[in-house]
């Protein structure tokens, strides 16, 4: 498939222009655009500029508050609860992440929960922001729609509930970063398959009779499968409790499907944790030993047919390096959607 490419700067400028054209304050539009493009750069294509049309729809239907008054409902030296006031999730999570970093630098750990947030893009975005500050980052989130049933059931009461962990490896080096949904595939990948006219692989979804579902346009008829069978179900549930229930955010039957409803307040729950290695074995030791561990893994023997051992975050780092030079791919279906956003916001469409 032929792709056009946008540089990271072009993508940020376009996203910001659309948001500002829809009456988001310029500083907020710029920051949200920056957070979104971070997803595109690391190859999380279902969470970056791809989501612009959905966010724009929520804004025009008053499903997102463009002038939020975020406030701390609880604030202690190492922990806080942030009320996002229904702002776009990227703004809520950026504020929460900066606060977590600040607390961790002072007292060793910063745990910040959020309620009344919205979809915030790739989980790694916020874990990596923490790692960029020289700290260990952990991010948990309740997904923005229920697409998974409890193990053995058919009632969709859980979401993709992602988790990201990022460990710094020293200035100028990419962190070791795990970013995964607790379902086999994130729902954003399903939406991308639908937009690009492609089928899903067997193993992503099943229908209510337990049979494989491969047509992404029929995804509403089925459910995503958890990673590791019942283990993925259990992990998804625990993330829902830690990022949702503990923060006073929506989970289970109270969760709003933001794919189907662009007007209701979603009350999305997220949690970001920053951990300061200097309060444990020390930053220098963590970095040195992490680098040693990575080298051992990379040099370890392989099974027949395997050419390389990879570590979490390596593909993302390669994608970022490539896309900073080559640009972010914009397939035809996405280009059409983006230019519909441009028309809606009264800004210049993308031309290649």
Summarize the structure.
By secondary structure, the chain is of the alpha+beta class. 38% of the residues lie in helices and 16% in strands. α1 packs antiparallel against α2 and α4 runs parallel beside α5.
Question: Topology, please?
Answer:
Layout (H helix, E strand, L loop, with lengths): L3 E3 L1 H14 L4 H16 L10 H9 L10 E5 L3 E5 L5 H19 L1 E9 L6 H9 L3 E6 L21 E5 L8 E5 L6 H9 L9 E3 L4 E2 L8 E3 L5 H14 L24 E8 L7 H16 L15 H13 L1 E3 L1 H14 L7
Parallel strand pairs: 3-4
Antiparallel strand pairs: 1-12, 2-3, 4-11, 5-6, 5-11, 6-7, 8-9, 8-10
What features would you highlight for this structure?
3-stranded antiparallel sheet, 352 residues, 10 helices, alpha+beta, 16% strand, 38% helix, 12 strands, 7-stranded mixed sheet
Report on the structure:
The chain is an alpha+beta fold. Helices cover 38% and strands 16% of the residues. The protein has helices at residues 8-21, 26-41, 52-60, 89-107, 124-132, 187-195, 230-243, 283-298, 314-326, 332-345; strands at 4-6, 71-75, 79-83, 109-117, 136-141, 163-167, 176-180, 205-207, 212-213, 222-224, 268-275, 328-330. Strands 2-3-4-11-5-6-7 form a 7-stranded mixed beta sheet, sandwiched between helices. The chain has a 3-stranded antiparallel beta sheet with strand order 9-8-10, with no helix packed on it. The protein has a two-stranded antiparallel ribbon with strand order 1-12.
Structural class: alpha+beta
The low-confidence parts are none
The strand order across the widest sheet is: 2-3-4-11-5-6-7
Large-scale geometry:
globular
Give the helices and strands as they follow along the chain.
EHHHEEHEHEEEHEEEHEHHEH
Report mean pLDDT, rounded to a whole number: 96
Q: How many extended strands?
A: 12
The major sheet is characterized as: 7 strands, mixed
Number of helices: 10
- Rg from Cα: 20 Å
Helical content stands at 25-40%
Distance between the termini: 16 Å
Strand content: 15-25%
């Amino acid at each position: 498939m032929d792709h056009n490419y946008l540089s990271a700067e072009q993508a940020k400028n376009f996203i910001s222009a659309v948001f500002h054209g829809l009456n988001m304050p310029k500083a907020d539009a710029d920051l949200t655009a920056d957070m979104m493009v971070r997803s595109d750069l690391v190859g999380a294509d279902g969470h970056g500029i791809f989501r612009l049309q959905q966010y724009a729809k929520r804004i025009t239907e008053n499903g997102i508050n463009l002038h939020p008054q975020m406030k701390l409902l609880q604030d202690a030296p190492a922990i806080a609860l942030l009320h996002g006031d229904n702002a776009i999730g990227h703004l809520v999570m950026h504020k929460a992440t900066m606060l977590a970093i600040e607390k961790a630098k002072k007292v060793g750990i910063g745990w910040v929960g959020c309620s009344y947030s919205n979809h915030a893009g790739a989980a790694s975005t916020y874990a990596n922001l923490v790692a960029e500050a020289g700290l260990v980052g952990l991010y948990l989130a309740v997904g923005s729609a229920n697409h998974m049933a409890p193990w053995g059931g058919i009632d969709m009461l859980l979401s993709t509930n992602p988790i990201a962990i990022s460990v710094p490896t020293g200035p100028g080096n990419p962190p070791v970063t795990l970013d995964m949904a607790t379902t086999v595939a994130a729902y954003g990948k399903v939406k991308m398959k639908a937009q690009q006219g492609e089928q899903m692989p067997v193993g992503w979804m099943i229908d209510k009779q337990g049979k494989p579902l491969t047509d992404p346009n029929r995804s509403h008829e089925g459910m995503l499968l958890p990673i590791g069978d019942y283990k993925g179900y259990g992990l998804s549930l625990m993330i829902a409790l830690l990022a949702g229930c503990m923060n006073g955010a929506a989970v289970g039957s109270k969760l709003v499907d933001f794919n189907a409803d662009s007007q209701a307040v979603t009350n999305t729950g997220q949690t970001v944790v920053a951990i300061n290695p200097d309060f444990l074995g020390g930053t220098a030791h963590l970095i040195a030993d992490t680098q040693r561990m990575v080298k051992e893994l990379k040099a370890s023997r392989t099974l027949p047919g395997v050419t390389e051992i990879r570590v979490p975050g390596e593909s993302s780092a390669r994608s970022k390096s490539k896309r900073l030079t080559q640009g972010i791919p914009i397939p035809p279906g996405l280009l059409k959607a983006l230019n519909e956003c441009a028309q809606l916001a009264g800004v210049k469409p993308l031309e290649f």
